[in-house]
Design a protein that fits this description.
single chain; 156 residues; mainly alpha; 6 helices; elongated
């Protein structure tokens, strides 16, 4: 079936794009020394795990690996949202320290343009959505489960 081949080709290309995005984002976080505290380590660790599990799915797409990748990608979404919140909070605090009278739209705009890239953690969410798309209706998820150690005996 041509359609099935096309779907699997796009799934594989999406997985390669996911791995490329994870590698680039991880590299950038390392270069930026985004490791001052435990919260800053969170995206680095999750991205590393995502790369390992994603690469494993590339070579051996089992039900367990695809399920693990799907769970990890779902975790990227709230982590990205938390990162956006923390970056914005840091920028707001900085702006108010510099100009305590700042408020309203001016404070919002200056915070978005602040020293911490306020929307950069959204990359985690984008990667998570791409990973969920790669896992959507993945053939490994509908494959028969591996047989248990004690196979059932058939009654005659």
């Amino acid at each position: 079936m041509t359609v099935l081949r096309d779907v699997e080709l796009w799934r594989r290309l999406g997985l390669y794009l996911l791995l490329f995005g994870i590698a680039g984002t991880t590299t950038e976080l390392i270069f930026l020394e985004h490791m001052e505290d435990r919260l800053q380590w969170t995206p680095v660790v999750l991205l590393g795990l995502g790369f390992l599990v994603g690469a494993s799915v590339t070579f051996r797409p089992t039900r367990a690996l695809v399920t693990g990748l799907r769970a990890l990608m779902a975790l990227y979404l709230p982590v990205g949202a938390l990162g956006i919140f923390l970056h914005l909070k840091s920028n707001v605090e900085f702006e108010l320290e510099m100009r305590p009278s700042m408020a309203g739209l001016e404070l919002v705009m200056e915070s978005l343009k602040g020293a911490m890239p306020a929307l950069a953690p959204g990359t985690m969410a984008q990667l998570g959505l791409l990973g969920l798309l790669v896992c959507f209706r993945h053939p490994a998820l509908s494959a028969p489960a591996p047989e248990s150690r004690h196979p059932r005996t058939q009654e005659t």
